[in-house]
Amino acid sequence: MTVLQKPMPVVVRLNRTKPHWQELQVSFAMDVRWSELPWFPGAWRCDAKDYDDSLRSQCSALNKSYALRFQEAASLVPPLLLEVKSTDLLLDLCAAPGSKTLECIELMREESDSLEGVVIANDADAERCFELLPLITRKARHPGCAVVLGNGAKYPAQFWGPGDQLLQPGLVRG
């Protein structure tokens, strides 16, 4: 119970696709309140007790400019395990609030500037989806992004209607 009552650390992920992100990396490295996650370059952790109003204000401003993103350490893992490539087609069926989706887009952009990859961000909740849409379009600035409102358990069958077809090698469904 003692562990569960302890406040979680603040974790931020630097956007390594932004210009001058290395300068921000150096700033975090020089601040003794932050420690870099050894398994994720550009992700930093700060104990909740050290996260004062001044630091909160600075991080908030950096988040608004999309220089960094607040994200729990556990949610950093899935995109790393996917080993996202710049030409991938990625379907995120439970995308809101969008941190992992944005991380995947950043990983695509880090690998190549080709912008060939496609990310479809789906969520079943309309309110969360409407919050996701401006986040993805404004922050990601990736032409291959789409935000979809729908039940992930029924995807893509819910979009098949009269005259619609899903074409795959050896499969035509209409």
> How many angstroms does the end-to-end distance come to?
54 Å
Oligomer: single chain
The rounded Rg comes to 19 Å
Shape: globular
Helix content: 25-40%
> On the 0-100 scale, what is the average pLDDT?
85
> What composes the largest sheet?
4 strands, antiparallel
Spans where pLDDT lies below 50 across 5 or more residues: 163-174
Strand content: 15-25%
**Biggest β-sheet: strands ordered side by side in the sheet:** 2-3-1-4
Q: What string gives the helices and strands in order?
A: HEHEEHEHEHEHEEE
Structural class: alpha/beta
Count of strand segments:
9
Q: Helix count, per DSSP?
A: 6
Pfam family, one: Methyltr_RsmB-F
Protein name: SAM-dependent MTase RsmB/NOP-type domain-containing protein
InterPro entries: MeTrfase_RsmB-F_NOP2_cat, MeTrfase_RsmB-F_NOP2_dom, RCMT, SAM-dependent_MTases_sf
Domain SAM-dependent MTase RsmB/NOP-type: 1-174
What does this structure look like?
The protein is an alpha/beta fold. 37% of the residues lie in helices and 21% in strands. It has 6 helices and 9 strands; from the N terminus they run H-E-H-E-E-H-E-H-E-H-E-H-E-E-E. The chain has a 4-stranded antiparallel beta sheet, covered by helices on one side. A 3-stranded parallel beta sheet has the order 5-6-7, with helices on one face. A hairpin with a 2-residue loop joins strand 8 and strand 9. Helix 4 packs across helix 5 (99-111). The longest helix has 15 residues, at 126-140. The protein starts with a helix and ends with a strand. Residues 163-174 have low confidence and may be disordered. Pfam families: Methyltr_RsmB-F. S-adenosyl-L-methionine binds at residues 94-100, 123. Keywords: Methyltransferase, RNA-binding, S-adenosyl-L-methionine, Transferase.
